[in-house]
């Protein structure tokens, strides 16, 4: 599905030109996703082959044995290919019996019994991206089924929708309608079953129609880009675009930068630190797209960094974005800028990013939004380095990142 990329690049240009004074519309307000969800998704592990009970239960067990549950990872999400290729005689989706020998509900019950949550995947169009039945015209029926199974999270993809030429290809970049209406149909269907089950709603239409400007009135999070294709270029493409849309993200409705690929042997250790740190400070959902059976100790340490998780889960829910200290070069489109900052309930997070090569990056706290000319205590979350003063400086290898929490007094949290 690489051809999603070109149009997504156009969407990213729109990001850069978007005004920053947009009024947020009324929030979905289903009470879910007040901080970004944390969990795992089956897609990157083995695509269709991992959409099964075996992977779901195995991952739930790993959440507990690896200590991930204790850190807040709770959603075990099954992506595309979990159903049979056709609905049953009543029009219901059918779990593929070869992948779900005990059906979905029994698995949901077991996962709930472990203190965890379960997510499923579907699609706006007539078929999912991998060609399984989509929810087109069946939204209310599908929502009732999900609620009856106790499903906690629903990812709604955007394949096989009507194009202006009357066809329904896998990916239509010239849709007959704004995608918003389609996503509202499923929102309303999920709302109608809320008394049975309140379901987290994740929009996946790859950042079309400036979804960040309306996503929070429709869903709890929205993909703002084409897929993370499991390479550095994707991390750079998505991470750089996130800076321009931070203002649209907040409690109950977050920009979704897509699944984390930490632990898949696709990035260097530096790049894994940058990927996790940047997604976390941007308040993206932290959804692991990896195989927890084969993850290295180094990668596991990154996704278990409690200081960074706490920043992601801060109750303010305000994403970091770029700022430009005096004398620093201008941001370059498509590259991850060096200086990031965002408010926390008890301080400020600063991200220093060596996005284009090894660098020594220094910042005076007086240049940081939310800080002043005084002396502050700080802690860098990967190295554990701490200090007190008016500035920090880090020498970083190529594509590495420092995540620095600067603690301010309690009055700060009351002023933001
Ligand atoms: C799309 C989505 C991916 C994944 C696949 C499944 O490409 O963007 O995240 O869900 O479909 O087919």
Automatic annotation (TrEMBL):
One of its GO terms (biological process) is carbohydrate metabolic process. Its EC number is 3.2.1.22. Residues 1-19 form the signal peptide. The keyword Signal applies. Residues 338-406 form the Alpha galactosidase C-terminal domain. PROSITE patterns: ALPHA_GALACTOSIDASE. Gene3D superfamilies: Aldolase class I, Golgi alpha-mannosidase II. Keywords: Disulfide bond, Glycosidase, Hydrolase, Signal. CDD domains: GH27. It catalyses: Hydrolysis of terminal, non-reducing alpha-D-galactose residues in alpha-D-galactosides, including galactose oligosaccharides, galactomannans and galactolipids. It is an enzyme of class 3 (hydrolase). InterPro entries: Aldolase_TIM (IPR013785), GH (IPR017853), Glyco_hydro_27 (IPR002241), Glyco_hydro_27/36_CS (IPR000111), Glyco_hydro_b (IPR013780), Melibiase_C (IPR041233). One of its GO terms (molecular function) is alpha-galactosidase activity. Hydrolyzes a variety of simple alpha-D-galactoside as well as more complex molecules such as oligosaccharides and polysaccharides. Belongs to the glycosyl hydrolase 27 family. This is Alpha-galactosidase. It comes from Stachybotrys elegans. The lineage of its organism: Eukaryota, Fungi, Dikarya, Ascomycota, Pezizomycotina.
């Amino acid at each position: 599905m690489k051809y999603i990329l070109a149009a997504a690049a156009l969407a990213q240009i729109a990001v850069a030109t978007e005004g920053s004074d947009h009024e947020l519309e009324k929030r979905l307000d289903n009470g879910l996703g007040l901080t970004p969800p944390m969990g795992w998704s089956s897609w990157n592990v083995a695509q269709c082959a991992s959409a099964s009970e075996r992977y779901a239960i195995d991952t739930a067990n790993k959440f507990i044995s690896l200590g991930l549950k204790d850190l807040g990872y709770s959603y075990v999400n099954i992506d595309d290919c979990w159903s049979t290729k056709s609905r049953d005689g009543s029009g219901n989706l059918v779990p593929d019996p070869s992948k779900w020998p005990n059906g979905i509900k029994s698995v949901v019950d077991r996962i709930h019994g472990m203190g965890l949550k379960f997510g499923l995947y579907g699609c706006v169009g007539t078929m999912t991206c991998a060609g399984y039945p989509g929810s087109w015209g069946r939204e209310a029926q599908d929502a009732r089924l999900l609620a009856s199974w106790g499903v906690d999270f629903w990812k709604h993809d955007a394949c096989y929708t009507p194009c202006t030429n009357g066809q329904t290809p896998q990916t239509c970049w010239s849709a007959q309608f704004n995608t918003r209406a389609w996503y509202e149909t499923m929102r309303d269907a999920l709302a109608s079953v809320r008394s049975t089950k309140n379901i987290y709603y994740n929009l996946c239409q790859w950042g079309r129609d400036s979804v960040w400007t309306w996503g929070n009135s429709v869903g709890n999070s929205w993909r703002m880009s084409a897929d993370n294709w499991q390479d550095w270029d994707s991390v750079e493409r998505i991470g750089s675009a996130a800076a321009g849309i931070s203002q649209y993200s907040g409690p109950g409705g977050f920009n979704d930068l897509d699944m984390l690929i930490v632990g898949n042997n696709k990035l260097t250790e530096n790049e894994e630190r940058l990927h996790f740190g940047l997604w976390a400070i941007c308040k993206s959902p932290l959804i692991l797209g990896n195989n927890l059976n084969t993850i290295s100790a180094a990668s596991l340490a990154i996704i278990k960094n409690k200081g960074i998780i706490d920043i992601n889960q801060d109750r303010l829910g305000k994403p970091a974005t770029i700022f430009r200290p005096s004398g620093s070069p201008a941001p370059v489109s498509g590259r991850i800028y060096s200086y990031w900052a965002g408010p926390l309930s008890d301080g400020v997070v600063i991200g220093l990013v060596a996005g284009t090569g090894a660098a020594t990056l220094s910042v005076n706290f007086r240049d940081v939004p939310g800080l002043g000319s005084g002396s502050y205590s700080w802690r860098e979350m990967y190295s554990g380095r701490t200090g007190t003063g008016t500035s920090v400086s880090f020498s970083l290898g190529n594509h590495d990142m420092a995540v620095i929490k600067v603690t301010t007094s309690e009055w700060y949290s009351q002023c933001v």
